[in-house]
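To make this tangible, we now present a fold written out as tokens:
***
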Amino acid sequence: MLAAVLARQAGDAAVRAPDMQQLIWICAVGISVLVLVASLVQAGLVLPRLRRILRGMEEVRGGGYPRLLAEGQDELAETVRGFNETVDTLRSRDEKLRAWAGHRENELVKLTHELDQERERLDTVLSAIGDGVIVLDSDNKVLMANRRVSEIFGVPVEQLQGCDLVTLIEQVRHRLLRPDLVEKKVNELKQAPNLVDEVTLELDDPGHQAIRLYSVPVRGTDGNIIGRIATSLDLGREREIERMKTEFLSTISHELRTPLTSIKGSLGLVLGGAAGTFSADARELLDIARSNTDRLVRIINQILDMMLLERGQALIRPVPMPLDACVERALRAVAAPAQAGGVSLRLQIPADLPHVLGDSRRLEQVLVCLLSNAIKYSARGQEVVVAARAEGESAHVSVQDSGCGMSPEFLERLFSKFEHAETSLTRPDQGMGLGLAISRHIVQAHGGRIWAESREGAGSTFHFTLPLSISPTLAPEPLRSAILEASSAPRLVLVIDNDEDVTRILSYIFETQGHQVICAHSGNEALELARRHRPDLITLDLNLPDLDGFEVLRLLRAADESRHIPVICISVRPDVRLALALGADFCMEKPLDIDRLRELSGRALATVR
């Protein structure tokens, strides 16, 4: 309409220009007023709806789920409907999330309860363990420890959690005898997490307490090291147990070997014809009794040898000696079982082999053990070869058989205590399984080493080395003819032993050689008889009821009338070193070897003029 008016006015030539301009301004103002009025009306309709949307958003942000009224079909109404759909989706998701969280919370509470129960059980078990147990993480900080660890380090149990291992060691550093060694070990464990090692804490206490910590790494399921567990061992308690074991074995050995001396001596004398002749059946039974007596003696000797060798108390006196003579004695010792089993023995030792530095008795023991095993596992018609050669500063000795051989698994534990070959479990001649362990200790005590090579079905070869001697050999022993002459001439022998049966056996042995015998059963009685009769030979038991046998020996050597009388010490387990230092000429162990006793007594009497 306005356009038509303006057109009419523009076409009217009579209309003046100022009137046209005034008319345009009036139209513009009218249009503005209309727009303003329309805007106010629209704002009155939209703003409340926008405010409701904003309030709804605030409620959503506060955790609510409001629903807004969607009026009309305009864009704002569509926005409200979209808002409501979003709120519904959020409500549904939140409800599902709360249900899942509630379920997981119940499971977590259950797992936490079970974990607390497991921890309580573990704490109970750890507290019941007498030795200390400590669990460390990968940074060597304490995760768990029992009360014994608290006692060792002087730290309350409550403060052990999270404590560093170095800090724990520092707590006892002032009590350690060698703190530098302990710190070195701890640093090695920190630098090498996969190291399995032990740390000994020697404490400078009145009781000289010693604690050994044995530490091993702990690996996770992926194989990576996640920590370390260490256990402590009270060495003081271990040493006390060892002392009790030693006393027990010493008592048992004495109680067994003393009667065995009488049994073995009596059997030897009877079989030697001392009781006259008897039937072949009786001799067979006596032979059985003697062989089983010897077997029992060997078992006792092996147990005691193992005990002394492990503690480093076995007497081994290396001297320059010819190896071939020792090997020949060992071959004679096993000749009978070799002949019975149809096994031949061959010796390969060069005549120019230098002398070795060894204890002939102990080396013969090693050779007899190796030869006996080789014969035992060789079939009839096979051969056992003993060879020796010089290699640098050592002599290399080997014993080779063609028997059944050994598996690699058994070869690894061959020289351990109480080990038997798989095929020996049902053998009637199965031993204690100590022979090779004892042999290993003896060879190592000589400064050598021992090892074995074997393949199943292809036989075995045992090797050991001995140091060669660089010193001159010992002076030769008295000639056998002189020994025989001295032993056959009538002499006076003083037998000193607290056991009457042993005294009777020894007396009978010397009397059958034409000697006169006087007996004493106590130290004081022996000293009086030695002073009064001045015998040509004395056999001395070191276990006497009144005086210690070593004290009797010292007094005999201190007295003028008995200073030069030969003395043979006879006891269950004589301290040979001490006996020889106090003046004994020879030492023998019970049960006695009659032939050996006759030989030693002959050698001793050969020095008497």
